[in-house]
Amino acid sequence: MDRPRIIVTAVVLGLAGAIAPIAAMFHLSWTQAVQNEHERLHLFASRAIARADMSLDEARDALRQIGRFTGTPCSADHIARMRQLTINTRTIEEMGYFENGLLKCSSWGPTDGHVAQSKPDFVTSDGIAVTARMQPVMSAGHTLMALRYKDHNALVDPVRFADIIVDPGVQLALTTENGILVGALNGPDPARIGKIVAGPEEGMDDDLLFATAHGTGWIAVATEPQSQILDGVRRQQRLLLPLGAFIAAFIIGLVVWLSRRRLSPLGELQIAVRKREFIVHYQPIVELRTGICIGAEALVRWKRPDGSLVRPDHFIPLAEESGLITAITDQVIALVVSDLNSLLVADRSLHIAINLSATDVGTERVLPVIAKALQHTGIQPRQIWLEATERGFVDIEAARSTLARARELGYAVAIDDFGTGYSSLSYLEGLPLDALKIDKSFIDTISTNSATSSVTPHIIDMAKTLKLKIVAEGVETRAQADYLKERDVDYGQGWLFAGPMPAAEFIAYCRRAKVPAGKA
Ligand SMILES: Nc1nc2c(ncn2[C@@H]2O[C@@H]3COP(=O)(O)O[C@H]4[C@@H](O)[C@H](n5cnc6c(=O)[nH]c(N)nc65)O[C@@H]4COP(=O)(O)O[C@H]3[C@H]2O)c(=O)[nH]1
């Protein structure tokens, strides 16, 4: 992904990361507050059911007691007993005795016997027939509930079935299972209660929150206006919004950290390695005596997604420091083989020099990589030169072992940038080498009177003493080329002959250079 896309993606992710947790916490505050309210309403409804059951138990107890009366029905004793039970049972307003379906007497005294038994709304499992709303004949007060067991009935004030303490704003209703309103607190709307009873256990009906509880035979409904939960929502928001803000800050931090990492030079280089964004340019090496091209040095370039080329000086040090260099070396080896396989097979006199990093020289890791890349290509190992700089000789024993093994396998080994490090003759003597590349800084001094100009002939003599092939790097002028040729330096590389070029151009250059290249 290129830079602008990373930035755009980071901004989008950052915004989403900031908005999503806050929005989620707003939503969660609301649902949590609603759930809390439902639980609270459910508690009131359950209490109403418990209260109704208790009232029913009281009435049932009184009905059973009077059922055990064995004296003459509607005698003074019987009426006194009913009256006593009415007085002693808080729930009961009046008791009555029925014969052949007609009220014969009540706790108030004998009746004229024309009041018929009411039709029950439901019958409990133990045989108590409940009529939710009926008008008492004797006491002629407000609507009561009738509970009948065998021949006796008890009239109960429905308020007794729902008289629990609720929070302000909460309305309570007790209905039979078929929706007949039995008792109510704080004036709920009967029409809406009827609708709620037929629906789910809890929820929201327009602007009304509700929860129901089911008992044997009745349903309790607790409701409250939606506006009542705003306090609860605010309470939840006070708890959850800081958490949302923390998560948002964490996500934004993470996005910034990740995008900075991806935008950092190392992050970009890691992506380049993963996406194999490297290409190789080839700089011809010519024989100074004839000017014929005898090979090239493979020089890596990083081709950015926008097409621009980054020179190795700008990323090789970072690659070496981070350990990415080994992957880059491997990609260069693969590219050399795929770019120049045919050329190297067609012309056995050509070689390609590959730069090894200090890490590559310190271990033998790279050797099997090259061997594998050359398999089935027809390229001969001697056509591959391995260039090691003096930086790679920090662990001299490891370097010696790698270079010796490389030569055993048939590769040629050259020391690159010679003279810039700490190499001395005695140092060089111990190393298994085929060639020495004189650094450009020494070539630059040729024909000048600088202090280092006298060093160049010594380097040349030293290489000759060690019977090494010599390559002069960075040859830019004819005077430099003439000087080197006079001193029997074998090969030259530099802008005088050609700069680094893409593979196709190098192949064309080599074909032309059957005729001597440059007039060295
Ligand atoms: N001013 C001037 N410069 C000339 C002339 N002739 C050649 N050069 C430049 O000198 C450098 C020669 O490569 P080097 O000494 O191995 O130095 C190389 C080498 O140490 C390293 N490098 C390049 N490719 C690789 C690679 O694949 N792996 C590793 N580990 N290092 C590489 O990067 C360094 C720089 O490479 P480049 O930028 O391609 O720079 C190249 C080349 O473009 C000339 O006449 N005048």
TrEMBL record:
Q: Where are the transmembrane segments?
A: 6-30, 239-258
Q: Which PROSITE patterns does this one have?
A: EAL
Membrane topology reported for the UniProt record = Multi-pass membrane protein
What SUPFAM superfamilies does its record include?
EAL domain-like
Domain of life here? Bacteria
Q: Where in the cell is it found?
A: Cell membrane
What UniProt keywords apply to this chain's record, in alphabetical order? c-di-GMP, Cell membrane, Hydrolase, Membrane, Transmembrane, Transmembrane helix
The EAL domain sits at 262-514
Reported EC number(s) for this entry are: 3.1.4.52
Location (main, coarse): membrane
Q: Which reaction does it catalyse?
A: 3',3'-c-di-GMP + H2O = 5'-phosphoguanylyl(3'->5')guanosine + H(+)
**Gene3D superfamilies reported in the protein's UniProt record:** EAL domain
Q: Which CDD domains does the protein's record reference?
A: EAL
Q: Which PANTHER family match?
A: CYCLIC DI-GMP PHOSPHODIESTERASE PDED-RELATED, CYCLIC DI-GMP PHOSPHODIESTERASE PDEF
Name by which UniProt lists this protein? cyclic-guanylate-specific phosphodiesterase
Which organism was this protein described from? Mesorhizobium huakuii
